[in-house]
Amino acid sequence: MSIPPGALAKALQELDRSMRKSLDGTKIENIKNIIGDYAIAAAVASGVAGVAPGFAGVAAALTQAGFVWATYVQINKTLNISMSENTAKFIGSAIVTNLVTSAGAFIAILIGSSILSMVPVLGQAAAIALNAGLGYTIIYVSAIIYLKLITRMMQPDGTLKVSESDDTKHIIRNIIKESNIKDMVKEGKAAYKQAKEDGSLDKAKKAKTCPKCGAEVKDGQKFCSECGAEL
Q1: Closest Cα partner for 65 from 217, 213, 230, 215?
Q2: What is the pLDDT of residue 55?
Q3: Other CB atoms within 10 A of residue 4 CB
């Protein structure tokens, strides 16, 4: 996944500074790929959710809950950050909730998708496309917010202290308020377009993935190697 100059690139640069320039090219590339892979998996899952009539946009947004925290877990592994799965879920839920309720760009896509999915054939096709783009963009933007959260909460000794508390929720709300979410959404949509054009999205549609976290799975595999979900 290539990153043009923008919010994600800046977030990685700021994180590198907070970690005392300890991010080498390999780690940065791994984080980029993690975000891209999970965003694509979320796009595929959201597109499927869009087939259902009615509140498809809302269903697609809810589908993202698992993909969001799974993305954070993989980023943590790359950065050697110790964090429980429950804490990652807590942060993921807080970030997505604040993004959806605070960002007009997301709300517009959700409403449009819900209305379109109630129109036969062409409406459902449009809803699938909208939901897929929404799924990708939510993962992309929420990953940027997460990187900003890590940067803000990194201690001078290089450790990260994040708790499942109202204080953490307050910090997340402030980060989102201070960020240009519309530009992040545009950047995410551009990255989604690139994934469609370079064939990454079509490749992902053919691959078998975990329905909970989007990780790739093999034939005959009974449990996901990433999140442990039964397949």
Answers
A1: 213
A2: 45
A3: 10
Record the tokens describing residue 210, joined without a space.
């975990």
Q: What is the pLDDT of residue 115?
A: 67
pLDDT along the chain (231 residues), means of 10: 76 91 88 93 77 52 73 94 92 87 68 68 72 87 96 84 92 94 88 92 81 74 79 74
Q: Pull the structure tokens for residue 79.
A: 């950065």
Q: What is the 3 state secondary structure string of 93-112?
A: HHHHHHHHHHCHHHHHHHHH
Q: What is the pLDDT of residue 217?
A: 82
Which pLDDT belongs to residue 10? 93
Rounded (10°) angle between helices 122-153 and 85-102: 120
Residue 82 CA from chain centroid, whole number: 20
Rounded CA-CA distance 210/57 in Å is: 21
The 10 Å Cβ neighbour count of residue 226 is 17
**Residue 83 DSSP SS3:** coil
- Nearest alpha-carbon partner for 162 in 224, 82, 49: 82
- pTM for this structure? 0.82
Instruction: Give the total residue count for the chain.
Output: 231
Q: Say which residue the tokens 């994040």 belong to.
A: 162
Instruction: Work out the number of other CB atoms within 10 angstroms of the CB of residue 67.
Output: 27
CA distance 29 to 117: 37
